[in-house]
Amino acid sequence: MIENYPQCEQTKIQICEYFNGKRKKFDIKVNIEGTDFQKKVWQSVSDIPYGKIKSYKDIANMIDNPYSMRAVGQANRRNPIPIIVPCHRVIGKSGKLTGYCGDKTYIKEFLIDLENKNNKG
């Protein structure tokens, strides 16, 4: 059972808090495997504040690789822990919601709306 693993239990608690609007930043210790580039992208994405969005170009600029927007998108696509590494906060330069877990942009929209709703007040 999940209760036998303290880190899993803590993750479950923090994700529930996130969906209930009580958590805006995760403090779970994770060690994500990926390329150096992917890790830079995921760290930059993790630094996007709750309820805010950035474009793929913004992330490319943040990692000092200004022409790597598509590669940033591919790194986000390979993000093994969405929500904790909040890749839903990354959108197209035009403001369009692009890619999330394949073609599930409705999930990205739901998460952005959830954060906007919980960020008010």
TrEMBL record:
<dbReference type="InterPro" id="IPR036217">
    <property type="entry name" value="MethylDNA_cys_MeTrfase_DNAb"/>
</dbReference>
<dbReference type="InterPro" id="IPR014048">
    <property type="entry name" value="MethylDNA_cys_MeTrfase_DNA-bd"/>
</dbReference>
<keyword id="KW-0234">DNA repair</keyword>
<keyword id="KW-0489">Methyltransferase</keyword>
<dbReference type="InterPro" id="IPR036388">
    <property type="entry name" value="WH-like_DNA-bd_sf"/>
</dbReference>
<dbReference type="Pfam" id="PF01035">
    <property type="entry name" value="DNA_binding_1"/>
</dbReference>
<dbReference type="InterPro" id="IPR001497">
    <property type="entry name" value="MethylDNA_cys_MeTrfase_AS"/>
</dbReference>
<dbReference type="InterPro" id="IPR036631">
    <property type="entry name" value="MGMT_N_sf"/>
</dbReference>
<keyword id="KW-0227">DNA damage</keyword>
<protein>
    <recommendedName>
        <fullName>Methylated-DNA-[protein]-cysteine S-methyltransferase DNA binding domain-containing protein</fullName>
    </recommendedName>
</protein>
<feature type="domain" description="Methylated-DNA-[protein]-cysteine S-methyltransferase DNA binding">
    <location>
        <begin position="36"/>
        <end position="116"/>
    </location>
</feature>
<keyword id="KW-0808">Transferase</keyword>
